[in-house]
Amino acid sequence: MLKLVILVCTFCLLVTAAQAEPFTLNVMSFNIRYGTANDGENAWPHRRDIVVNMLRELSPDIIGTQECLDFQADYIVEQLPQYRWFGVGREADCSGERMAILYKWKQFSPIEVTNFWLSETPEVPGSQSWESACARMVTAARFYHNRTRQSFMFYNTHFDHRSEAARQGGAALLRERVDAVAATMPVVITGDFNAKGGDSAPWDTLVDNELQDAWLVADETVGPPVTFSRFEPPQMDVDRRIDWILVRGPIAVEQCETVLYNEDGRYVSDHFPVSARLRLTP
Is the pTM of this model over 0.70? Predict the structure, then answer.
């Protein structure tokens, strides 16, 4: 009987140790540019395979997209079956652009998925406030890492492109939702914030000693501090990051990169993706 108890206790200790194991999480924030835009040679049918090739090469674990239409996400997972996706459109009938989240389904499971709109009535689909030019929203999930059995929260958003009041209101609402999550839960946020990282009111609302800007705390940064491209090469002397990755909790940012992937000068979008290699520790 004593041997059995010892074996059970040893097994429990081994399981606990396995659960407490740190793991690497590669995330990406990617404004994919909506697939029906009249972009000529940069229209979705002409660049979709460049997008697929970029994702195949970088192999992020979780991708927070902005401006994504359902057929764009469908195409990516058809070409890269290691991914699945979820997300609803921002309009009142849940159609249109969405904050689609793609993830490697063999490694991660979205245990809880939520959507809320950046407005004074966040639970109402399609709702708008603060003179927002269009409906804006957040798609979020509590992810479960299948191997280590650890959980973390992942938020993905796209702030308004015209109204500063809407950006500030959206930042305050997002921060309120994040603060409501248990302090022990790691948090990752991806998004196109349409505001300059390090020098804007939305950034000031979101970033502090708890919720940190991955670009600024990374052990290593790669690429220029500019993320809007208009399908053109980066202006290396410009400091304007409007696409950010934010982290909270026991997360070390080993690397953050402005992804300049292109094929013969053809870029994946009118934004450069931003990727980060994170180390989550128990």
Answer: yes
